[in-house]
Amino acid sequence: MTQRYFTEDHQWLDISDDTALLGITRLGEEMLGDLVFIESLDIGTRITQGNRLLTLESVKTAYELTAPLSGTVTKFNAQLSTHPELINTAPDATWIVKIQVQDKNTLLSELNSLLTLENYKKNPFRTA
């Protein structure tokens, strides 16, 4: 079963077993504006929770996403290389990367820093 989690900086994660799809929320997309470039990640890139993940560039700004989980990138949504605007069209359905989580114990620990939908809606960082 897939569970959706959120970060304070407007990322969503769909977690199923030991994999996660990562995207940005509608609010995050609205704050960024029209996306013009998304930095790609190589398959096999190891990421650590809290460290820089990739850069999203919009007509307004460049924004660095931090990794919400530790693990390994197993897939990058290649469509976004030529069509970053897909996120503007459907941010809650357009994933950016697929992550293989480091291990179950690490995942359980890192989930404590993520938000449920209910908590995301109450999040004091929801607006710029």
Describe this protein's structure.
- The protein has 128 residues and is α+β, with helices and mostly antiparallel strands.
- It has one domain (3-108): OB fold (Dihydrolipoamide Acetyltransferase, E2P), CATH 2.40.50.100.
- The chain has five helices and nine strands.
- Strand 1 and strand 2 form a beta hairpin.
- The protein is globular, with a radius of gyration of 14 Å.
- It starts with a strand and ends in a 6-residue tail after the last helix.
Give a brief description.
With 128 residues, the chain is α+β, with helices and mostly antiparallel strands. The protein has five helices and nine strands, in the order E-E-E-H-E-E-E-E-E-H-H-E-H-H. Helix content is 23%, strand content 35%.
Query: Largest beta sheet, briefly?
Result: 6 strands, antiparallel
Number of domains: 1
Mean pLDDT: 93
Q: Using the 3D structure, state the CATH architecture.
A: Beta Barrel
The count of DSSP E runs of length 2 or more, i.e. the number of strands, is 9
Q: Any idea what the CATH superfamily is called? A: RNA polymerase II/Efflux pump adaptor protein, barrel-sandwich hybrid domain
**Radius of gyration, rounded?**
14 Å
Strand content: 35-45%
Poorly predicted runs: none
What is the terminal separation in angstroms? 33 Å
Order of helices and strands: EEEHEEEEEHHEHH
